[in-house]
Design goal:
By secondary structure, the protein is of the alpha+beta class. The chain has one domain: Nuclear Transport Factor 2, Chain: A. It is built from two helices and four strands; from the N terminus they run H-H-E-E-E-E. This is Gas vesicle protein.
Amino acid sequence: MANSSENTAKKNESATEKLSLMEVARRARAQLAELTGMEPDSVSSFTETDDGWSLEVQVLELRRIPDTTSLLASYEVTLDSQGEMTGYRRIRRYVRSRADS
């Protein structure tokens, strides 16, 4: 019986462990890639929220030659406190060579 209660305690402990920033970024990238079929290029920002995390992920949507004309997009990705995606949306599309103003 003690073994069962030890397992429950370990599960509760791991459920309350805070994810590292690197783990949050990895999970956001992996889940976005799985849902969209596109490979994330980078994570440009992330913020801890009351419910988990909000990240901005850059994705290469259309590769062109020369590469400076490739089409990228910024996605807002939200994760809960366990690192599971709760939503995403494309917030911007742009050509790689175009700088933010």
